[in-house]
Amino acid sequence: MRVLNIRVDDRLVHGVVATNWVPRLGVDRVIVIDAESANSQMLKSVLRMATPKNVKLSVINGEKALENFNDNRYADEKIMIVVKTLLPIIELLEGGYKFDKITIGNLGNQEKNASTVALTKYVSVNDETRMLIKKIADFDVKVKAQLIPEDYEADIVELLSKK
Question: Which CATH class is domain 2-161?
Answer without folding.
Answer: alpha beta
